[in-house]
């Protein structure tokens, strides 16, 4: 019975982690990939008891899956931060251009003398 509680607890942790990752995702273009990968990880967590019944060692497999999952999350967060930084830089450049254009006076013709 203790193992059942531990298994349910692990699934709950994974679901919370999935929810956090979905909220942190930079844009909708990444969400389908995140859903796919997190779905695979969730299925693996649900299959752990079945693997144990048949005597298959899942410890190494799950550890490797967790490492890959963590790497993917870090890559997404890094890419998200880079995209946000690029957006800020781009908006600053556009703002600077607008301010520069607003301060200019167009001169069509200049006459010196009479």
TrEMBL record:
Residues annotated as transmembrane: 7-27, 33-54
Phylogenetic placement of the source organism: Bacteria, Bacillati, Bacillota, Clostridia, Lachnospirales
Protein name as it appears in the record: Stage III sporulation protein AF
Keyword Membrane: yes
Region (Disordered): 81-114
Start-end of Basic and acidic residues biased regions: 101-114
Keyword Transmembrane helix in record: yes
Provenance organism: Dorea ammoniilytica
Record keywords, A-Z: Membrane, Transmembrane, Transmembrane helix
Record's compositionally biased regions (Acidic residues): 83-100
